[in-house]
Amino acid sequence: MTEINVRPLAQSDHADWRRLWTAYLTFYETKLPDEVYDVTWKRLFTAGEFEPKGFVATFHGKAVGITHYLYHRSCWSLVNNCYLQDLFADPEVRGKGVGAALIEAVKQEAGKIGVKNVYWMTHETNATARRLYDHVARRTGFIEYDLL
Known about the structure:
This protein has 148 residues and is an alpha+beta fold. It contains 4 helices and 5 strands; from the N terminus they run βααβββαβα. A 5-stranded mixed beta sheet has the order 1-2-3-4-5, with helices on both faces. Strand 2 and strand 3 form a beta hairpin. The longest helix is centred in the last third of the chain and has 15 residues. Keywords: Acyltransferase, Transferase.
């Protein structure tokens, strides 16, 4: 049996969080200035309904995955929606259930406050992640556009 543990991020996780988030951003060929790291870390621990939150996954005691998520209002529902913004598992533990455990933790946490809609995006070329997502969720068919 695997030894995956998922828990809310703690201040003591900063170095592991930074390492894992940097690896996630590198995977998506993105770099962010230190100021964004600092503000994001602060926001993850700021109280507020719409502030981002996070989980860390450990495997045999080592931090190997993270997720960030946030709640937002919707014109289609009386309760908030939950956007799972970032999800990353170290390549050496992929396929061992880390990503699924992080998704399940977000789903369970959202459910505690009555949120049923947990959703996320991934790049169409991210075949590894899509295999997991196709197994744990339904594909909606919506296509993303942005104005960047």
